[in-house]
Amino acid sequence: MEVRYFKVLYDYDPAESSPNDPDDDDQELTLRDGDILKVYGDMEEDGFYVGEHTSGAAKGQKGAIPSNFIEEMEGYDPVPVADGLVSLGAFRVLYDYDPDSQSPNDEPELELKMVEDEVGEKLEDVDDTGYFKGRINGVVGLIPSNFVEMEGAEEAQDDEAQDAVEELPVGTIVTGLYDYVPNEFSPNDEPSEELGFAAGDRMVVMDELDDDGFYFCEHKMTGQQGFVPSNYIAPYEDEAIGKARTGGFTSYEAKLGEQ
Question: How far is CA 135 from the centre of its chain?
Answer without folding.
Answer: 11
